[in-house]
Amino acid sequence: ACLQKKMRLCLLLLFIDLVIGLYDPRQVETEVVLPELRFLYQGKRISPWHDIPFLAVGNDETSLLSFVCEIPLGTRQKMEIHKSLKMNPMVQDKFKDGSPRYYKYSPSIVNYGAIPQTWENPDFLDPDTGLGGDNDPIDVLQLNEKSCERGAVQRVRVLGALALIDDGETDWKLLVVDVDDSSNATTWKQLSDIPTERIDQVTDWFRVYKMIEGKPMNKYAFNDKPVDAQHALRVAKQTHEHWQALIQGKASCTFKKEACWVQREVPLIESDEL
User: Fold this and answer.
1) How high is the pLDDT of residue 20?
2) Between the N and C ends of the chain, which has fewer C-beta atoms within 10 Å?
3) What 3-state class would DSSP assign to 4?
4) What is the predicted pLDDT for the residue at 256?
């Protein structure tokens, strides 16, 4: 009970800070402590999964979310926010034999990452796929031409999503653009603004990229077609609600037979005014 009260207080303080506009994603920094990439805010260590806000701030668009870059465009190293390590650092994923995981099919054709404060609950049957979630924060395919920096936090506009089915699990892929980039992609406002050939390229890549590892071809709901921004945002908000249930102790999460790390000892932001 004491821990739950502390968690609720942290969330309340974070919410107040966001409302008065104190959070600045440009102040999120990373440091390498091998084999981990750790996250800090104003000199204090934070969890990229639990402490970086779901909604991007400092904007007048309701569809902007926070995005954490894990695999920059053109790279192969499969990095991910680790769910069970303390403070959820970013580490390189591993194959079943313990070797570091890289994309074997080709370098990444998108800036790949996740939306913080989300969770695809394995025990929740997604109404669009009829399958449980993949137990991860919701995945993001950032479509800008410029490579993101691993660990960077960006403000992204949601344009749509692909309902990927990977090994019998729901594995949504949000289609987004970094609104603070200077490329043409920042002018894309909705799903129809994305060139058809770009959508086809991404859809085909994520359908077959694991086959070179001996795994079956992935599938999609909706006859392989992406859903629009409204649908995608509804899915994202649903995964945010699942994350809220997780940190409130109303749901449980394990990763590689270990409990997911969800505790926080201090809020993301501390204000002298509070």
Assistant:
1) 40
2) N
3) helix
4) 86
